Amino acid sequence: MKNQIKLFTIGFTQKSAQQFFENLEKAGVKRVIDTRLNNISQLAGFTKARDLKYFLKTINGIDYIHILDLAPTKIILDEYKKHKGDWSVYEKKFLNLMSDRQIQNKISPDLADGACLLCSEAKPHHCHRRLVAEYLNDKWGNISICHL
User: Fold this and answer.
1) What is the largest CA-CA distance in the chain?
2) pLDDT at residue 58 in the model
3) Which member of 8, 68, 84, 144 lies 3.0 to 4.6 Å from 116 by CB, making a disulfide possible if both were Cys?
4) Burial classification of residue 102, based on how many CB atoms lie within 10 Å of its CB (0-12 exposed, 13-18 middle, 19 or more buried)
5) pTM
């Protein structure tokens, strides 16, 4: 029997830095896996990649890794965000992209266990981090997903 993998997800928008870092700490997150296509934008605030890596390690002792294969392409993202596309179309395209990329082979269960998938969306409902977590659970079958 496979060990249960505990995988968290979090979005940074509509959260203060204090809420964000306290949520990660309370959950016992070991590492943050950044799933954003663009993690260096000024809009990222306290979650700009270099700053976030420092803050996570210093404040919480949490590791940081950016896995670009877990992000949508610019085309898929722009169709949905900039052109106000349909969520079901975005979801289908992103699921196909994850399948094409075989993301289940780009991240190991050991790396995922105790990790938290990061993106910008405040809630997981219309967010690719939820799709990543559910896709990995479909492939591995032993993930407990918790949205922070």
Assistant:
1) 45
2) 96
3) 8
4) exposed
5) 0.94
